Inverse folding.
């Protein structure tokens, strides 16, 4: 048998049930904040990502799935959604002179080392807003995230880390100071960081190498370089969060892996998933639209890692209610199939999830299948029931059995299903 490609995910039915629950909860909150769903292609020109995500990032340097189209174009599977989202809104004239609040869901692809919570195909729910300059948008994004955790029952298992990386001009000054500090230590840095010293030095702060992190202890602090406007933006954000009762930690070392951020950056992390602890990450990227060739437009957003949130949800809420079958219909002989199907159809219209037995056999065999399906109720349609206009209902949890009229069936099972 051919096997799945390493790092590509199968989400099997059990997990998919939880997945659906998580995705519905999150997109429900997004809709309640009046963010609108959009859908974006999985393939884009490679150039979109090298310009949007930034040349000197892990994603562009070593994680992209890039292929040549038959006509010679270089295309890449999307490693993230923000660049595509900007590309799309810009291309369709939806950024100029207006504001947008949108979200999208779906798979992203990065060639990384697969492990628990880190895959080569993984799924994100991304939200982005354009045309809002002030910190009130940053506040909304964070309150919306807090609402996800509340709805999912995960509030006690995640923390918010926040930082401001300033406007572009202050970052350039900081960058010079950082390079001046690190140049003499160059030889002691890890290989990636040595390279980044000339390409993208801010990213060195993000390094996971311990020696590099130790060297950074005495590095100039980003906070000392942040401009007054950025500080005012950040202080206002923090004040609103305090007022809203949202707890956070300011982490002065937090810079995001992608190039396009300005001002606010944040991560929601959990201690429950080992080193793959970031479940949602985002911030402000006022420079991105311009960087991609549009007119300067403020933007901010975040991406949540659905795979990791599903893992966390599974750890916290071990059992999953909501089996996928409510009712299993058994019937005595082939000539009754039509009656069984009609019975099922009526219940489906009342939102029950119904399976009709297939493959014949006696009631004993059929009831065994009903048990195995996970259904709460088995309906038994025999000769007598058909004549009388009744159906026998077996509660598969208690084993109780009762014959009711067709008219009473709906009330009978609904009054007892509400568990
Ligand atoms: P990490 O530091 O964990 O690699 P990142 O900074 O590369 O994360 P982002 O690009 O900000 O991640 O993506 C946002 C979120 O998407 C992450 O916080 C994480 O939850 C999820 N994510 C990113 N890469 C993966 C992956 N390979 N597998 C599963 N989830 C991922
Ligand atoms: Mg990464």
């Amino acid at each position: 048998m051919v096997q799945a490609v390493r790092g590509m995910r199968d989400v099997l039915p059990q997990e998919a049930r939880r997945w659906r629950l998580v995705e519905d909860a999150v997109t429900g909150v997004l809709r309640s904040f009046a963010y609108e769903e959009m859908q974006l292609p999985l393939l884009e020109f490679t150039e979109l990502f090298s310009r949007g995500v930034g040349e000197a990032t892990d994603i562009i340097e070593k994680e992209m799935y890039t292929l040549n189209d038959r006509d010679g174009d270089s295309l890449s599977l999307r490693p993230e959604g923000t660049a595509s989202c900007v590309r799309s809104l810009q291309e369709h004239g939806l950024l100029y002179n207006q504001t947008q609040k949108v979200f999208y869901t779906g798979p992203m692809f990065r060639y990384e080392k697969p492990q628990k919570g880190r895959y080569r195909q993984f799924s994100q729910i991304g939200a982005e807003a354009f045309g809002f300059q002030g910190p009130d948008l940053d506040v909304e994004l964070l309150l919306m995230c807090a609402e996800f955790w509340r709805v999912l029952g995960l509030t006690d298992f995640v923390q918010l880390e926040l930082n401001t990386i300033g406007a572009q001009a202050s970052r350039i000054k900081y960058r010079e100071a950082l390079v001046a500090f690190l140049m003499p230590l160059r030889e002691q840095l890890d290989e990636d960081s040595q390279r980044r010293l000339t390409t993208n030095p801010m990213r060195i702060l993000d390094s996971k190498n311990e020696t590099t992190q130790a060297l950074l202890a005495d590095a100039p602090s980003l906070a000392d370089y942040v401009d007054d406007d950025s500080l005012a933006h950040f202080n206002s954000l923090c004040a609103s969060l305090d007022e809203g009762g949202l707890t956070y930690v300011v982490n002065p070392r937090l810079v995001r892996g992608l190039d396009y951020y300005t001002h606010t950056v944040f991560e929601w992390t959990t201690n429950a998933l080992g080193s793959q602890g970031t479940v949602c990450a985002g911030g402000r990227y006022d420079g991105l639209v311009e960087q991609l060739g549009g007119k300067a437009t403020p933007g901010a957003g975040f991406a949540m890692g659905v795979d990791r949130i599903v893992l966390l949800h599974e750890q916290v809420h071990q059992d999953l209610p909501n089996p996928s079958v409510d009712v299993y219909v058994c019937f005595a002989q082939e000539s009754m199939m039509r009656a069984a199907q009609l019975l099922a159809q009526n219940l489906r219209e009342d939102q029950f999830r119904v399976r009709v037995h297939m493959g014949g056999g006696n009631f004993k065999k059929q009831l065994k299948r009903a048990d195995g399906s996970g259904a709460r109720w088995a309906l038994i349609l025999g000769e007598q029931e058909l004549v009388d206009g009744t159906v026998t209902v077996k509660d598969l949890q208690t084993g109780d059995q009762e014959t009711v009229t067709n008219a009473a069936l709906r009330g009978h099972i609904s009054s007892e299903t509400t568990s």
Q: What stands out?
A: The pocket of adenosine-5'-triphosphate (ligand 1) is lined by residues 80, 110, 112, 117-119, 122, 124, 257, 276, 278-281, 303, 305, 307-308 (CB under 6 Å). The chain has two domains: 13-167+227-316, 327-418. The radius of gyration is 27 Å.
